Structure formats: C-alpha cells, structure tokens
Amino acid sequence: MRYFRLWKVFLTNCLIREMGFRANFILGILGNLLSFSINILFFGIIYLNVQSIGGWDVYRTLILVSTCQIINLLYSALFGGIANLTDYVKGGSLDFILLKPLDPQLLISLRYVNLQSFLSLAFPCATIVYVAHLGKIAISFSNLLLYIFLLLCGLLLRYALGFIIMASSLWVVRIDALYALYNYIASLAQYPMSIYKGGVRILFTFVIPIIVIANFPALSLKVSYRQGLSFYPSSSPSFSFPFPAIYFFSVFATIQVPVAENLFETIANTKRRGLC
Amino acid sequence: MGKYRKIIYNVIQETSAYRLNHLISFLCVAIPLLAIIFLWRTVYQSIPSIKGYNEAMMITYYILSTWLGDLTGVVLWWEITSDIRDGNLSNYLLRPLSYQLYFFSTRLGANIPYSLIGAGITIIFIIFLAPDFYIPSNPLTIPLFLISLLLAMLLALQFTYLFSLSAFWLEESSSVNLFVDIFIPLMAGNLLPLDLFPTFISRLFKALPFNYLLYFPIDIYLERLPFSSIFRGFLVEMVWIAFLQLLIAVVWRRGIRRYTAVGG
Lengths: 276, 264
Known about the structure:
The complex is a heterodimer. By secondary structure, chain A is mostly helical. Chain A is 72% helix and 0% strand. Chain A contains 14 helices and no strands. Chain B is an all-alpha fold. Chain B has one domain. Chain B contains 11 helices and 2 strands. Chain B has a two-stranded antiparallel ribbon.
C-alpha cells in the first residue's frame, strides 16, 4: 500500500513534467501509433500474398504483434526509468538513491512513469478486439485471465532481462550500447515463434528468453474452453503448444526477477559498504 | 577540394577510434535482420515467388537494404540543427568553406568505417544464414549498381541536409523527425520491396524520389530492370538531384536571412 501511494506520487510528478511540453507529448503518442501501424502494415502486406506463415494465419499474427506492442509499451511506461541507471552510476547520484529509506531497485525501476506509452496502449488493445471480432475468435473469460496472466509473465521477463543488463553497469559503467542492443533483440518477440529454427530458437527461448514473452500470451488467446489446450487443429502443420510450456514460462519469469534483484542487491551492498 | 578531403580523412580517423561502438550499433541493425530472414524463409515454404521475387532475391533484398540502410538513409542530422539553434553555425560561416560540403565530408567520413564494419558482419550473415545470396550474372550489373549507389548516397545527403535546415524555422523538430524516421524508410523500400504494396501505392512510391535511395539500387543489383529503365531511372534521379540542389540553395539563402546566431 505504501508503495502504491509512492507510485501515485511518481505518476503525478511525471504528469506535471509531461504537460509542460504538450505538443511533444502528442507527437510521442502519434509516433507510437505510427510505428505500430507500420508493423501491422508489414504483416498485412505479407498476408496479401500468402495464407499462413509457419501455421499462423493473419489474425493470430496480428494478435501477436499487438500483444508484443502491449508488453513493450507497458515496459516503457512502468520500467522505462531503468535506462537511467548508467547515468546515476556515472554521475554519482546512485549514492543518494542507496541512502534513501526505500528499496533502491524500486526507486530506480518505477521512478519515471512514461505516460505517452500508457495512453498509446489504446491502439494495440483496440486492434486485438477488432481482430478477434474479424477472425471470429471466441475469447472466454477464463481464457482472457490466462492471457493476462501470461502477458504479465512476459512483462516481468522483459523487465528482468533489462534489469540484469542495467545492473551490470555498476561493474562496467558504460552499458548503454548493450542496453540498446537488448531493445533491438526484444524486437524478435513480435514474430511467430515457429519461424525460428535450430540454435537461434534455443538461444532465444532458453538463454535469452525473448521470443516467448509475446508468443505465449498470443497463443493462449486461441484457446477456447472446449478445445482444451490444443492450440491448433491437428491438421495444421505447426507445432503444438503443450501445457508444461506455460508452467515453465511462468516459473521462469518468476525466477528471473529475484535473480535480477539479487544481482542488484549484491552489487548495491558492496557500494553501500563503501559509502559508510 | 583538398580541404574537404582532409575533413573526410580526419573524420575517418576519429570514427575508427570507436570500432566497438560501430560493431554494436551495426549488430543492433543486424539482429532484426535475423528475424526477417527467418520470417521470409518460412513464408517461401508455401509459395515459390512473390511479385517476381524468389526466396534468394528476397533475402538478398533485405541483407542489402540493411547494409545500405545507413549509407543511403535520410536522418535529421542533429549537428546541423544544434549548430543552427545554438548559434554555432557562425563559426562555419566565417570559415572559407561551404557548410554543405563540410557536412557532406563529415558524413562520408563517418560512413566509410561504419559501412566497412557493416560489410564484415554482412558477409558473416551471408555465409551462415544466406548461402543462396543472389550474385548477378551479367558483369555490367555491378558497375551499374555502384553508380546507382553513389547517386543514392548523394541524394540521401541532400535530403538529410535539406530536412535538417528546417531548424532555421522550427524550434522543435519532433514532427520532421517523425516524417524522416517513419515515412521515408517506408517510401524508400526499407520495410518491403515497393512491388509488394498494392498497385496504386507502389506506383505512387515509385514516382517519388525516395525510391532511388534503396529500392532502385537493389532492383538493379537483383537484375529486375532492363537497361532502358535503368538509364531512364538514372536520368530522373539526376534531375531530382539538380532540383534538390536548387531547393537547398533557396532554403539556405532564406534560412541565413532568418538566422540570428542566438548564443553564438
């Protein structure tokens, strides 16, 4: 509760800051909308020429692209502030953060709320509803819950991976380029996972689990109650999506966060000792 | 000409000092390419050719467009906009050199090491992921491609310069930036080969000068154009280049009249 009140203060503060540059604020939202539309356009035009990509029809793929956008927007809305960690380390203001009577990871991660990203969430959400309507995809209530649960797992995973990279800036200081690279790697998430083959698939599923963050929730939205958890009709040439995958995914996501947290705590503690 | 050669040489030396930086920034561009290659390979499992592009040609299209992306890409060049806004431009106005040629030289100098490192990574990509990379059969294709590439680089520099000069009038460039970052790559063919768009849009994009930045050179490389269209393309492109140079002269003259050297 205390944390929530604190977060509300962050939110108000960021709102006031953003409203100082209103035109910029609107252009930022427009930019988010345009880049999302470009992604939709890209897949839309490919599907003008083919029926399916590795077992994914146009509706599934558009839901995937929208889901990926939701995760990316939530990530930048809530946790965008972690990108500033290198500046704290370089500029020395990390010391002030460590001395505050508050969990430093919380302060670093949640201090800056990106309202443009929050408002931009409307576009992918509307797209999902519209696509589900067009594709006659029945979404039951329990299905929706599963989708939201997996979406949050994906978000956590995205955050944990980002935070692990940023936390290592306490050792090597200059990590900006690596973090930028991570954000590019995250763009792999918006493609149907059945396109990835061999080593690349293993690398981005188990080592840097980026392709699962949007694919799993997008796949789960296809489940309708009667079909159980077989995500595709058996005639479909694509892979099946077994239940253990969900289990593995959620466990993995929940494990990653403490890993990131521990890493940060260890480094921060050494720093703190140095301060005292 | 000697002073501009010296500028190019200096910038090459300066940027070569940050090789790792170049390596990572090129990796940033190459990672999405990985997904694109996998995606198109999967698409071509169910269809032999799309609008005249077979699998090898499509993969080659994207590999080349990634490599050329920076060389022939249009950006809003922050050095120009900040020079104009901070009044730094006065320093260059006092020197016996043309600001446009100075800018062209610095860009060329920065691009040469970057594209060489890019070429290295591209070759690794081709060896491991695209052994079917398209090699032109006609020996004339490569020289024609190189000519189109030079013209495209010149066009890209002109557009970059022109859009950056908008800082004379605009306090804030976000809207120009949006146009430059999102619409120009779309019209140049970065997202998709222009032929894949619906006929009307594809015709429109091909009538605009932006297609000469990327789509046209790659189409020459892929030998999809007869010689007559290549030469017609060169002619139209050169007319655009001349027109843009005229426009730049007009914009520069008007801009300088507005320029107040704030803080300079």
